[in-house]
UniProtKB/TrEMBL annotation:
The keyword Transmembrane does not apply. One of its GO terms (biological process) is proteolysis. GO terms for cellular component: membrane. Pfam families: Peptidase_M2 (PF01401). It comes from marine metagenome. This is Angiotensin-converting enzyme. GO terms for molecular function: metallopeptidase activity; peptidyl-dipeptidase activity. InterPro entries: Peptidase_M2. Keywords: Disulfide bond, Glycoprotein, Signal.
Length: 501
């Protein structure tokens, strides 16, 4: 080894000088910088969210080529700005931040329902695809042979709930699913673009990005869902076994073979996601709940708007302030006869302050009476967090928002119906079996359906289910989780996932 300023020590001196020079440079970002960045980002995003929300409302309630374009442009702007802000936020990745700031930065990334690549042209393409698929669904109808008029989705849903003619049910089931094959290639491109955007944000795919919003690692979230489902699964399987046996007795074992999945067109719902509409077939003897909510609404001459008033009075009784007049002026309560709309029930918060609305093609029936209370639960929750910073004007997670709505819906008990004057007296306690079964047909039956839909999406985004296997993957999961099968042969020429909003 040589002494002095030879080759042994010179590199050390250079390294030391480099370190000193770096220490004299610009200081790195601080927690205060992160706070200022978030405040600026939230102010910018809030304005864009409001603009995009208004454009989406018009597009959902007045579907035309022009409203599709306006909604797509507004959505593309939100995507572009959010992606740019998320990239800028990367400067704080190595900064030691308080947990609330770190979580807010994650919420910024996951605030997008759909991410897109940084290329503006691809962002615009994704927005056009998204609004286009929504428009196709909203415009969907079925025109039966020899029928005087075509059927809208709400009309088909009512027929599905009431008809016991298996040929009619099969025809409607297949007819509605003719709306979705044109969306198949669009959806494959949607997945490609959204996955690229999620990758730019640091996620493996869009599914992982969605699962990142539950305050646990995405993989742990999947495992937790399976653990919880495992606890409920025995109850569901017992319910499934009972329903299948009763349907077989009603329609014959040739139509409903015992030991096989239930045909999807016989459960009183277009998507077999809830089964309460077949209670008259599967309810146990001498377990009549004692009332029929649809008939109560009819006998009390409660129209669609008054059904919403009942919902508002429910929240009044809990001490909440009445809904603003703008709610009544701007909400969509009935299916218009002069234009196409997206009838799927949803709750909206247009200005993140007080402009709350529901969008729903209400039918005068018990199912929609409960749904109204559910949707209003969203609206009142939206009003409750309006004092938070913009990124926090949302639920703790998506599931929590639905939990609020469903908890409210569970309050539609016989005692409640007596209190509001729709029912004279509550049924005796020995009628509880019927009430509980009806509730199970609604709530327990839905659980594997909701889980299955997410599983299909996640597997599509991860590539486990490829585009050429979309439909097969859908029905494999329906058989696995729900014990449901298609009533007709299906192929990859179909796109049955697209028939569900």
């Amino acid at each position: 080894m040589r002494d002095g300023w030879g080759g042994g020590r010179l590199p050390c001196v250079i390294a030391l000088l480099g370190t000193l020079a770096a220490g004299c440079g610009e200081p790195g970002p601080t927690p205060e910088d992160a706070q200022a960045f978030l405040e600026r980002a939230e102010e910018q995003l809030l304005e864009l969210w409001i603009d995009a929300g208004r454009a989406a409302w018009v597009q959902n309630t007045y579907i035309t080529d022009d409203t599709n374009i306006l909604a797509a442009e507004a959505q593309a702007t939100v995507i572009g700005v959010t992606m740019a802000l998320a990239a800028e936020a990367a400067q704080f990745d190595a900064v030691d931040l308080p947990q609330d700031l770190r979580r807010s930065l994650l919420m910024l990334k996951t605030s997008l329902g759909v991410a897109a690549p940084s290329n503006p042209a691809l962002q615009a393409e994704l927005a056009v695809i998204s609004t286009g698929m929504e428009s196709t669904y909203g415009r969907g109808e079925y025109c039966p042979d020899n029928a005087e008029a075509c059927l809208s989705l709400p009309q088909m849903e009512r027929l599905f709930a009431e008809s016991r003619n298996t040929d009619e049910l099969l025809d409607i089931w297949a007819g509605w699913r003719m709306v979705s094959p044109p969306m198949r290639d669009q959806y494959a491109r949607f997945v490609e673009l959204a996955n690229a955007g999620a990758s730019d944000l640091g996620f493996a795919d869009l599914g992982e990005m969605w699962r990142a919003g539950y305050d646990m690692p995405p993989d742990e979230f999947v495992a937790e869902l399976e653990r919880l489902w495992g606890q409920v699964q025995p109850l569901y399987e017992a319910l499934h076994c009972h329903v299948r046996a009763e349907l077989a007795e009603e329609y014959g074992s040739a139509v409903v073979p015992l030991g096989q999945p239930i045909p999807a067109h016989l459960l009183g719902n277009m998507w077999s996601q809830t089964w309460a509409n077949v209670y008259d077939i599967v309810g146990p003897a001498r377990a009549d709940p004692g009332y029929d909510l649809t008939r109560l609404l009819e006998s009390n001459r409660v129209d669609e708007l008054e059904m919403v008033r009942y919902g508002e009075r429910f929240f009044d009784s809990l001490g909440f302030a009445p809904l603003p007049e703008t709610f009544w002026d701007r909400s969509l309560f009935l299916e218009p006869g002069d234009r196409d709309v997206v009838c799927h029930a949803s709750a909206w918060d247009l200005d993140y302050e007080s402009d709350v609305r529901i969008k729903m093609c209400i039918g005068r029936n018990g199912e929609d009476f409960v749904t109204i209370h559910h949707e209003l639960g969203h609206n009142y929750y939206q009003r409750a967090y309006r004092g938070q910073s913009p990124l926090h004007r949302t639920s703790a997670n998506d599931g929590f928002h639905e939990g609020i709505g469903d908890t409210i819906a569970l309050s539609i008990t016989p005692e409640y119906l007596v209190d509001v004057g729709l029912l004279e007296t509550a049924p005796p306690a020995d009628r509880d079996l019927g009430l509980l079964l009806r509730l199970a047909l609604d709530k327990v039956a839905f659980l594997p359906f909701g889980l299955m839909v997410d599983q299909w999406r996640w597997k599509v985004f991860s590539g486990e289910i490829a585009p050429e296997g979309y439909n097969e993957g859908w029905w494999d999961l329906r058989a696995e989780y729900q014990g449901i099968r298609p009533p007709l042969p299906r192929s990859e020429a179909d796109f049955d996932p697209g028939a569900k909003y």
